Amino acid sequence: MLLRLKSDLNPRDLAExxxxxxxxxxxxxxxxxxxxxxxxxxxxxVTAGPEVRSRLEDHFAVAAIVGGLGAHELHxxxxxxxxxxxxxxxxxxxxxxxxxxxxxxxxxxxxxxxEVAVKVRAAGATLLRGGVCKPRSSPYSFQGLGLPGLELLxxxxxxxxxxxxxxxxxxxxxxxxxxxxxMFQIGSRNMANTPxxxEVAKSGVPVLLKRGMSAxxxxxxxxxxYLLAGGNANVVLCERGIxxxxxxxxxxxxxxxxxxxxxxxxxxxxVDPSHACGRADLVRPLAKSGIAVGADGLIIExxxxxxxxxxxxxxxxxxxxxxxxxxxxxxxxALDGRRLSEPSSSPLSKAPTAI
Length: 355
Ligand code: PEP
Ligand code: MN
Description:
Helices cover 35% and strands 19% of the residues. It is an alpha/beta fold.
């Protein structure tokens, strides 16, 4: 294993690093190239776990770890390990199958939720989204319906034939929410909330982990590592845009990192074009870009009356627009030899049995 060193190191810093490596059980050798590199070899009987990798990565003198440590983090893709396939109801993420998740930003009324659910299912969605505990930027904005909203989401999901996904905000909410939804969402603002990650890991419920709005790919993967290390293997990553300097779009959809994640982790990765752009008119092109770079699905905010949505109204699209995205998605996936995970025959569309 090689450590790439920071460019402005003085001999004292280097000596300190060498000493730290020796204490961790490694022999060291400086490698002469155009970059400053330090080669590490584990001493007899030393095994380097993920903790060692983290400690080296955090060392002030280290710019990056180059190559493997011999030790394996649980999220890492390798030749021996098959891609993780996460199944939630009819939704199959990964292994050549992609998923469409759709629904309003927040659960509002039963009528609205049912109308959207029926339409997005008919278009090809297999998971119904809807927030009941909303992490709003302002304390004066609609905060969600709470547990009664979750019961409503579950009921509509069951009636329409869609599994449900909703955001969990606090560790103490995890247990009461188990059994009331099929997948937990950990939102961007909570990606690095380690008590929440640990609690959701323990629940065993599949997780949609959103990237923090200013998190690096490595930080994102380490948040996923908390879930995996805590015993929850059903983790789906979601790129939802990172903070940029330009106000033309709400965030910047980082498709480069989607492609990168697909190379370095076996976990499924999906894209949220709605929060990435924050504008209904840009959701469709961004959705296409996500599938084109290899995403295993999309999560999209859909509302039957976007102008009056109680949350994220500017980015909500109509069910008809969602149907056009579903068609794009099927076509793009076919180009790639992949397929959309479709809803099974609908409980609503089943013809009544003739007597
Ligand atoms: C959401 O899905 O409505 C949401 C709040 O997403 P994010 O955490 O990505 O902002
Ligand atoms: Mn939203």
